[in-house]
């Protein structure tokens, strides 16, 4: 089955370029386009895409609010949102991640990175460009709680090892890197990550990383 992609950007030329790149791949099908967030919501309901390639700055409804309505808390639809940004330190990217985006990509990324990003997000891996994601969270730490708030009760549902894994996920480590750090197998790490997501009611690794920052478990700038 081909990965069904919806393109959302207010610039028609960019949508055309993305479509040409993606339709050259046998395992990806562009099922629709939208020029703003409101159109995106209608298209998601009508077309049921697997991945929404979402611009942030658009008229009528921006990409952050559209992402929140597609992938935010309580949403259980199949669509995953991959956010597009012009700048690698766009302040809105943090808000998009908190709204439920599965990752982000620079608009000037090479074609092969766009294709790979679509595949990664569709597969549920979600933590795209983890080192950059962590840098964004560090950069915009002022948007996040100070860490002095009480620890959420949900964090107490995790075992000590699951807390360790969550911290490493928040630092941007891949499953292979976490396995090496903890001297366990990748399969064991995947199991722990799955337990963390289930217990905390999170959709993917990006949301887990944001949760770790917001709960104070990981402080911006720390290792």
Automatic annotation (TrEMBL):
UniProt keyword list: DNA-binding, Phosphoprotein, Transcription, Transcription regulation
Q: Which residues carry this modification: 4-aspartylphosphate?
A: 55
Q: Which domain of life is it from?
A: Bacteria
Keyword check for Amino-acid biosynthesis: no
Answer whether the UniProt record assigns the keyword Membrane to this protein: no
Q: Which PROSITE patterns does this UniProt record tie to the protein?
A: HTH_LUXR_1 (PS00622), HTH_LUXR_2 (PS50043), RESPONSE_REGULATORY (PS50110)
Residue stretches making up the Response regulatory domain: 4-122
Q: Which PANTHER family match?
A: TRANSCRIPTIONAL REGULATORY PROTEIN NARL-RELATED (PTHR43214:SF24), TWO-COMPONENT RESPONSE REGULATOR (PTHR43214)
Q: What is this protein called?
A: Response regulator
Organism, scientific name: Streptomyces thermocoprophilus
